[in-house]
Amino acid sequence: FALYLSRFGVHSLRPEWDYQERHALQLYLSVLDYDAHVNTDLVTASVPDESHIWAAYNEIGERKAAVLFEMLHRVMGEDAWLTALRRYLVVYANRTATSSDFWDLLQLQVDRNGRLGKGLNITRIMKCWLGQPGYPLVTVTRNYDHRTAIVSQQRFFITPQFRNRWARNPCWWVPLSYTCPSCQHSEIISFSRWLTCPTSKPSSKSNTVLLEKLEAEPTDWILFNVQHTAPFRVNYDLRNWQLLNKTLA
After folding, report:
1. Boundary-marking domain end, from 106, 130, 154
2. Whole-model pTM?
3. Which CATH number characterizes residue 44's domain?
4. What's the mean pLDDT in 219-229?
């Protein structure tokens, strides 16, 4: 939490450094690099008593937590996030608090502004990111004639052969945002659609969502995870990669 908040202090003192965005990007890239391996640390860890707290500390967990706070900041919106954060600091000043206390305060603010839509629970969303290693590879397969896209997820490994050895089928609650040349706004970040995790045993079907009425024209490229909203990588169908490559060439 301190690592996440530190960027705002530096930005307030030296806005010309553009430290806030650079710091966020550095943390994001470091998490994608480290957390792509098989044996990675969880963000959260249980300890028997306070004497074991320091032994449970890990740097990548701290960095990933900061990236996840940034994700919540973006999906909740500036006003809602800052209101909830100020409320948390006031309510728990000079007191101890758990992560559940923080999620509950965020949930109260989310319920008030309705930005995340009905049925989205902060505790459930964060549990999947904090309680399992790694992060997802989100695959976007477009139907250019119908302006739809099938979006699926699986755990990303930097070494592909590890994927076949991984027995479990983890999933994450992933906020979906995209941009394209024909989008009415520079980016579409309503977060009305998420890749979700069921409460029962995950299945391949539960890790897939169909996006309809995309604003992208058949000749447009489309780019997901605008401004690195959440820590995941994106893969596209061949045609979309070709459109992106043509634009960047």
Report:
1. 130
2. 0.84
3. 1.10.390.10
4. 91
